[in-house]
Amino acid sequence: MHPPPPGHADASDRARAPERGPTISTRGMVASSHPAVSQAGVRVLEDGGNAVDAALAMAAMSWLVLPGQCGIGGDAFALVRRPDGTVTAFGGSGFGPDGGEPAFYRDRGLDALPMDGPLAVAVPGAVAALAALHADSASWELTRLWGPAADHAERGLPCTHKTRNDILERRAALSRDAGAASVFLPDGVPLRVGAPLRQPDLAATIRRVAADPASFYTGEPAERAVAALNEGGAPFSGEEWAASGEALTGDALTCTYQGLTLHLTPPPTPGWMVIQQALLNDGVLAEAPWLSAEAVGRAADAARLAFADRFAGCGSDNDHWRTLLTKDAVDAARERLAARDLPAPARPHVPVDGDTTSMVAVDADGMAVSLIHSLAFTFGARFTVPGTGIVLNNRLGRGAYLIDGHPNEVRPRRRPLHTLNAWLVTGRDGALRHVGNTPGGDGQVQWNMQLISHLLDHGLDPATAVSAPRFTVHPGSDADVIGEPPELRVESRLGTERVERLRELGHDVRVQGPWAGGGSAQVVSADTGTGALLGASDPRQDGVALGVL
Description:
By secondary structure, this protein is of the alpha+beta class. Helix content is 37%, strand content 17%. The protein has 2 domains: 31-249 and 355-399, no CATH class; 271-352 and 432-547, Glutamine Phosphoribosylpyrophosphate, subunit 1, domain 1 (4-Layer Sandwich), CATH 3.60.20. The protein has 21 helices and 21 strands. The longest helix has 21 residues, at 293-313.
């Protein structure tokens, strides 16, 4: 029996996020942040497709129903465990502009990269990653997998409460872009809940790219994108688009935790930060009571140290992170954690919120996919490519610094650092044990570690893991929040006694609403005894886990 969540929720809290057990199936399972996305994946599995087919169909559907969180103009990363037990990482992260020297931005009076508009854009990598994933392990043609999404984009899917709220919050920025305004603010009015969200230009782009993914980087979509960005003042040459069409494919990062193997996405993702936290917490969190103040404080301190290490020396194209995972470095960091010798944040900036979405899929043969994709901030750069329906990301603005000499300083043909990461867990025999992920900016590496600890240290089921009270170290290392005063944000369900004890331990705690911690975690676990798959989707958003009947 797993322990009950600490703290309490009143009746309205329980109505909003009821306690529930995991979805159970033996023939395959998917989980995502939107019912239509999960439905797209489970239909593929029911019709004989594999987990990669399901994940690819889910990705395309999420472009339509979660347009603020992801899109064909964003980035994507995935881990795949094949039925033979091998695990491979797939990444799609594009370069910044070839003319993007630091002086280019400083000459325009900037001391940080903009968070929206053409100067915030990096070449989208999602198509490259998804095409590579398809070529590696899919059993269906990409045109078949993405055809339904294109049809729905043409006909229109009902606008959700989340999408309407995203539009309302970003209304001013969306209204300045003709393409975005025509889709999300028709006749100058934000779409109502239930109104059809029609995107005929995007439908045509999806069909074209499904038939020829390379065209996104060397064909008409690329030419239109470069022309629009150049007109907006961004120094793209077009050659960086062609160079970004090659996916980042290779081995996952791994480490041992509680005797099992963790697999994480490699740079430019911060998967190594989850590994660093795992190495710092292995054998510690399992000995502490679940979600006790001491356990929460230790996990928070490990996350804070990881962010400080990231900012101090890590860029998307260096190997500094490897030195942080050596035994000597981990031993020294453990001593620092024991003494609570923690670094202060680096320098101040202005905060901006962001969004992402993620999904998992597992089939009856044991193939498993953890996939995450994003436009960086909500609706990305709020800048569209005319005639294509493509909303471009703002990953360069979010992930690159304008700090002289920093390893993550903006440079031509350099990828910005990422917040996106995905994970899965296998046993000593290579069998699948867990696969999961969560959106949430710099919360991701913290919440993923929390999920892994819930599952491996305390043996919790997926539903309890994804709904457990969440806590977050702030700031992380996004360009927009560096140097803000350090605080530990906790959901009120953690309980008053634990909050007060954390303050006694020296943490500056800010209490959030009972379900306001952020994220939208997805987990599917394999029961090694029964062969059943157990899955759950985070109650903080609208998602659902579905099994194949």
